[in-house]
Amino acid sequence: MKKFLIVMLAAAVVFGLGAGTAADGHLEDGEYVGYSEADENGYVKAAVTLENGDIISVNLTEYTEKEEAKGEDYTWDDWHEAMEILPERFEEANSSDVDIVSGATGTSEKAMEAVEMARQKAEGVEQFDGTYLGTSAEDNGGWGVAWVTVEGESIVDVRLEEVTDGDEFKDEDYGWDHWHEAREEMPEWFVEADSPDVDTFTEATSSSQMWRESVENALEKAGLDTETLEE
Question: In whole angstroms, how far apart are CA 148 and each of 86, 108, 112, 194, 213?
C-alpha cells in the first residue's frame, strides 16, 4: 500500500499518510474523523476521540468500493474480529501503529491510516495527500463514484465509475456511447481544471453532475475544497 510523506515544521517520517499542511506536534482534545487511502476495495473511516492528548475512543467503519458500509451481514469472520479488536489496540497503545489482525491485513492497515489521519488533524494538519474515494447522492437509484489522487493541493489523477439501480457498476456493455465518452474524458477535465467544477458532458448530463459531486466529496476527505484548489 502506498505510503505518504507529511510535511511538518520539524521534518519527520510518520506512519501511513502524507499532508501538505504543517503541524506543531501538540494534540488538541476533541473528536476527529480520519480516512484511509482508498483502493479498489474501498476505505476505512475512523472517528477518534482524544482527551488530555490520549486516544480514549476509536470507532471504525469500513466502506466498499461503492461506499456502502460493511456490517453484520459481511461474511468474513476475520474482518469482524478486526473491527472488534482494533479499536481496543489503538486505545491501549495510544497510537495509530498497532499489530495487524491476522486474516484482515488490508482492513488493519487502512484502520491504522485512518486513525493516523485523525491524530494529525488533532495536531493541526488540514490537507492530506493520497487517493480518496467520493460518491454522489443517489439519482434514480444509482450514484457516481470517484477515486481522486491529490498531491500538494493539486488533483493529479481521477478514476470514475457509476453504480446502477441494480447496485452494480456500469461496464463496457452499457449501451450509451456518450456515457462511455464522458467517463473517459472527464477525468482529464478534473485534472486540468484542478477542481470539481467542470463543464457538463453533452448527452451525459446526469452522470456528469454525479461525477462532479463525487470528486468534490473525495476532495473533502483530503481536506480540500473548490476554493482551495482555485487559489
Answer: 27, 22, 20, 11, 12
Q: Specify the DSSP class assigned to residue 2.
A: -
In the predicted model, residues of the chain with pLDDT beneath 70 are 1-24, 226-231
**Strands annotated E in 12-171:** 18-19, 30-35, 43-51, 54-63, 128-135, 143-151, 154-163
Domains of the chain: 18-126 (3.90.1010.20), 129-230 (3.90.1010.20)
**Could you tell me if 210 and 134 are in contact, meaning their C-beta atoms sit under 8 angstroms apart?**
no
Per the CB < 8 A criterion, the answer to whether 9 and 23 are in contact is yes
Q: Nearest-CA neighbor of 46 among 37, 134, 175, 54?
A: 37
Identity (one letter) of the amino acid at 94?
A: N
d(CA 179, CA 17): 34
Each residue of 135-152: pLDDT tens digit? 999 999 999 999 999 999
Query: Considering Cα of 65, then 68, then 73, then 79, what sign does the dihedral take?
Result: positive
Q: What is the pTM of this model?
A: 0.88
In contact, 67 and 59? CB cutoff 8 Å:
no
The beta strands (E) that lie in the chain are given as 18-19, 30-35, 43-51, 54-63, 128-135, 143-151, 154-163
